[in-house]
Every structure is written in C-alpha cells, then in structure tokens.
Design a protein that fits this description.
- The protein is mainly alpha-helical and 203 residues long.
- 42% of the residues lie in helices and 8% in strands.
- The protein contains eight helices and two strands.
- The protein has a two-stranded antiparallel sheet.
- Helix 2 crosses helix 5 and helix 5 crosses helix 7.
- It is globular.
Length: 203
C-alpha cells in the first residue's frame, strides 16, 4: 500500500455544508460538499457507522457506540475529535479530506491490513473502495498527523514546572537486525546482532 503523495504538504481548509446522513456519506465520500468541520462526537459516531457496515442503523447508547468506535479505530471518540480539531486549527487538513477519510486513516493505523482487506473494510455496505481512492485520501492524513509532532511535542515544556527535579527519563531498547558479526552483538538476543537505541521521555 505505497504512498503516492508528497509528504508534509499543507493545504488550505475548505468549509462545506452541514453533514448529511451516513447513507449520503457512503454514496459519495469524495464530494466536497460532504466535508464537515463540525467536530461533534455524534458526527464521528455517524461517520464511523460507514466503516462499521452499519449504514442506515440508528445510533445505539453512548457506551455501545464508544466500544465499537474503539474496536474499529483504536481510540475513543474524544481523541478522534481532538485530532480533527488540531489538524483544523493548524491548517494541516488535506484538500478534500473529510472526517470519514480521517477515520479511514485511523482504521488503517489500528488494523494495518493488506490493501485488499483495507479497501473492503473502509467501504462498508457499499463494497470495496478503489485502492487509488484509498491512497488518495489516507496518505495525506498520515503525513498531516505526523506533521503534528512539531505542534504537540514540545520538549522544552518539561522544565516549565520548577517543582519537578526530574526533567527526563532515559532508557534503552534493542532491535533485532540481520547478523553483522560480533560488533553488533546484543545480549538481549543471546549474542545475535541488534541495534541499541537510547530513548528519552519527557512528560
């Protein structure tokens, strides 16, 4: 499932008309009129029904919808809402990108399937999405979410609170690589080759 877009491209936001029903969304996911920046949890649940193959069904209780949302997209609905608002506020939303397309991306992150499985999964009751369509809308969101690193992760914030005397924790982890002799020997892999990374964590 190769990327065919330019990385870290930032696009202007276009505001659409109000969101229609999930049946309309599933019918034409690329229609610019379907773009919705009204980041309400109920909107995300409604868009999520398309991927969940529940188009046309009424929303269940909040508890049930939240459980399904986590199962399919790997996060709770408020995390998804926050992500959309961040992308919107810093002008990182891809051209023609909708809430549904962002949910495609979260589904991709959660399941990380082969291309055919992905296209069938996000298509819902309307059948598999064309692979080129999936790539067109998912990969710009992948790059946009990755670009949030400079917005969300502010390493200098670790020293804001003077009451804290521990500004960062440091640990190491080894990753297995093909054997390259004793120079890359790792005790974690019983002498087989590995690379050791030093990881710093500041919360």
């Amino acid at each position: 499932f190769a990327s065919t877009h330019k990385n870290n491209t930032r696009h202007p936001i276009r505001f659409p008309c109000a969101m229609s029903s999930s049946e309309d969304i599933a019918t034409d996911v690329s229609n610019k009129r379907k773009r919705d920046t009204n980041a309400l949890p109920t909107n995300f649940y409604t868009y999520g029904k398309v991927v969940q193959n529940r188009t046309g069904k009424k929303l269940d209780s909040t508890i049930s919808e939240e459980r399904r949302f986590r199962d399919f997209f790997g996060v709770d609905v408020m995390t998804a809402v926050t992500l959309w608002e961040l992308l919107n506020n810093v002008d990182f939303l891809p051209d023609d990108g909708t809430i549904l397309h962002m949910l495609w991306t979260l589904y991709f992150f959660k399941v990380y399937p082969k291309q055919g499985v992905l296209c069938s999964g996000i298509g819902g009751s309307k059948g598999a999405v064309d692979p080129k369509t999936a790539q067109k809308y998912i990969w710009p969101f992948v790059s946009a979410i990755a670009a949030l690193e400079e917005v969300v992760i502010k390493f200098d914030d670790r020293i804001i609170d003077p009451c804290h005397d521990c500004y960062i924790s440091v640990d190491g982890t080894d990753f297995r690589i093909p054997n390259h002799g004793c120079t890359f020997s790792s005790h974690k892999f019983k002498g087989k080759s590995g690379l050791r990374y030093e990881v710093g964590l500041g919360i």
